[in-house]
Amino acid sequence: MSSIRWLLAALRKFILGNTFVRASTRGLLWLLASLWRATKGPSPRSTFADDSRVVFAQTPDHDGGHTLTPTSRVDTENPVGYISASSMPAFLQPYLNSGPGESQASEDTTTHSMAQESHPLHNLSDHHLGSSSVPHLPPSTSMQDLSAPPGVDGDAAVNSLPCLSKTHKCIFPGTPETLRRYDRKAIIPPDPSTFCLPPLAMDGLPNPPTPGWTACQHPKGALYFFQEEQRVFTDANLFDMETLLFINENLRIVNDFLSTHSVHLDPGVDLVLDENIDSDGTRECQYYFVNHVGRCVFWMDNGDSDLFPVTAHVKGMTSASHIRHELEAQYWLHCEYYPRAFELTHEIINELRDIVLHAASDVFTSSTTTVSWKIDDLRDMNTCIAGCNEIIGKHTENKFEGSNCLVGRLMHKFARDRVYNFHGEPGARLNIHKSVHGTVQKGTMFIRLLNLLLLSVPNSHLSGLRALSIDGIIRHSRWAQFVKGLISEWQDCNINAAVILAANVGFLSIQSVDQGSPAQMASYVSTVASIASILIGLLLLGYHRNLDSNSAAAISFTSNDTDWRRPLEALAVLYSLPFSMLLWSIVYFLWAFMGAKIFVAYMLLTGAVIAATMLILLCVAQAWSDWVRDSMAKKWRRMLSWPIAIFRKMYDSERSVPNV
């Protein structure tokens, strides 16, 4: 034993005392270490300096700096964060020294690089999370799915995210337009108004407690609730404890869904929850999110076209740019319903003013403008916008929600007009008479038969309605002008029908008119037609007198999902009845008058009939002239234009010519 110790001491003295041997030994050890590092690769117990699989978070005090803080790593099998192995003591790392042959399962529990897993996190359940919060992957996510992470960052749409409505059947997506604010069945009982205010109630009686929620009053009077910390809005009556628990439970479900699937939303995103009770008493909750930066609504579900009621009237909405206009229209409708949702700025006011000014210039410079407002309405809009611009920045605690509501409503209307006119599309509607679908409107057998019965009067009204309703869309200003023309026509018909009625009464009082004669029967028919013209005219006047500036009635008349031509044709027949009855009254009165004198002055009657026929043909020829002029077929032009040429030649022969 002593000899071995002596031999080792001599060898140690030889190596340490000989410089050449010591250098050679160190070089050999360095070479072996280099070869080992080159062949082994990165170690799973690497330090923070070379471990690219660890996500580093920044503290609020060192935002943007290089201070490293211990952060949790994500376990795909067990979504519970744990500290990186390299920062743990050696006695807590029993499996870190297993060498090259260790199991690969430990590698499957680590995350990918920072570029794949570092997302800005915002959960509605914690509006301002600390910097140490790290997103957790759902248990069903594998390493292969991390190339398309299930988080939502910015405007990225993630196809792998499951639908919220399929996970929780009580929640379904909605839009601001499908909210039931104006269709709620809340009834205030007509009980006696009895109450008692306590002494020193200087602020009135407090509302029932709604923890975490603030009761708000819309400028129009509606009650809604706002949770400022999580930016959640609801129209549900949270003063009712059962409803409050229902909304809070659905809010918790949404928060858990976002947290489970690592959905990261911006801090300014709004969430709207609305209680929906079906006819069978089932209570459900519709929801939607609002992105103020992108001016759109979105969901944790597939946004099908059925969510948008406008798709029932606007056909061909398929392009992304067209759908984008509808999303913006829904966004501004949300701002109108919840004016506390956004802050009114000079930039928004200037944008709205620019839209109104362009619309006004298009109205008074183009006769075929697609703007659905009259110039007086646009002038009033500009006045209101100027008033909104003056109060921006002048409020401190209380917001002027009326201005926000006004701007939201106007922006919604103009955005919806862009949807109707296909703005930004290759076939955008640039004039009011253009159909973006290129459809040719043909009359049905219904209107053809009634045109013969009503002396072709419905045809003229149908042409006006078709020009008014291109592609089934009613224009506000055109509708007002059209209704004013109808009112004037019906008033004239009532006056003329009253004159014909008086003439028939006088004719029937003549003793020479035989009882039961054709002349008397014709006079009776003329009298009935005159009375019908007056009655129908009065009814139509009473209904349309206050609708000259309201397009809602026209939309209700013409809206039909199957075939919108039939409502237009029925409306044309209805509008033509006073004038048609007046014409039939005149025709039968002339028949009665001529029938009584036919044996007395046969030649005079013949001349009167010929003269009346010539005048009627002249009016018909003048009415046909425009249609014949636009006809492209030469043979039809030659065949149809000969009566026009004859009458015009007769008319031109009576014109005065300059004396030269």
Name a few traits of the molecule.
seven-stranded mixed beta sheet, 660 residues, signal, Transmembrane protein, disordered C terminus, transmembrane, alpha+beta, membrane, 18 helices, two-stranded antiparallel ribbon
Write a structural description.
- The chain is an alpha+beta fold and 660 residues long.
- Among the domains are: 464-597; 601-660, no CATH class.
- The protein has 18 helices and eleven strands.
- Strands 3, 4, 5, 6, 7, 8 and 9 form a seven-stranded mixed beta sheet that branches.
- β10 and β11 form a beta hairpin.
- The longest helix is centred in the C-terminal third of the chain and has 33 residues, at 476-508.
- The chain starts with a helix and ends in a 7-residue tail after the last helix.
- Residues 100-116, 130-145 have a biased composition (Polar residues).
Q: Can you tell me the residue ranges where pLDDT is under 50 for at least 5 consecutive residues?
A: 41-157, 557-565, 650-660
Shape: elongated
Whole-number mean pLDDT: 74
In this structure, how is the largest beta sheet organized? 7 strands, mixed
Tell me the radius of gyration.
41 Å
Q: Classify the beta-strand content into a percent band.
A: 5-15%
CA distance, first residue to last residue = 155 Å
What's the count of strands?
11
* Alpha-beta content class: alpha+beta
**Counting H and I runs of at least 4 residues, what is the number of helices?**
18
> Which sequence of SSEs, written as H and E, runs from N to C?
HHEEHHHEEEEHEEEHHHHHHEEHHHHHH
Helix content: 40-55%
